[in-house]
Amino acid sequence: MTKNIVVMCDGTWNSPNSETNVNTLYKELIEEDYKQHVMYLDGIGIGELAFNFIIDGAIAVSLDRKIKEGYKYIINHYNPDDDIWLFGFSRGAYTVRCIAGLIRNCGILKLDRDITPDQIDKLVDVAYDIYRNRDKVYHPEGPGSDDFKKSF
């Protein structure tokens, strides 16, 4: 049965308590009966320490982690007939654009065999490194990306 997989990324310094369109839509979607998996990622700069607020908000130290989290959520819930929806605000829009690019370059890893969470994390790291590599070999239709897609 087809389902929706929805990843929603908020903007800088926006948390689940923020009144943003992303958060409002997230709250509506989690109340729906429709078959879907919905993930909300708070914005860059949200953390327990003042350091996170200032430094991460300014230079987005946590951006890589958030991109990987969104991608991992998708691969953990995805089946071939599913629809993927990505929503973002501000830097969250950039985050979901990167998730879409990661999917385009590396595909969606198929987790239909025994694989540990640590192994998933390592594969996501490899996929992310391929996505970030500007060498032509790793462009979306390049042999490096194609080989990775075929392997998983």
Automatic annotation (TrEMBL):
Domain T6SS Phospholipase effector Tle1-like catalytic: 3-142
Name listed for the protein in its UniProt record: T6SS Phospholipase effector Tle1-like catalytic domain-containing protein
InterPro entries (UniProt xref): AB_hydrolase_fold, Tle1-like_cat
Origin superkingdom: Eukaryota
PANTHER family found in the cross-reference section: PTHR33840, TLE1 PHOSPHOLIPASE DOMAIN-CONTAINING PROTEIN
Pfam families: T6SS_Tle1-like_cat (PF09994)
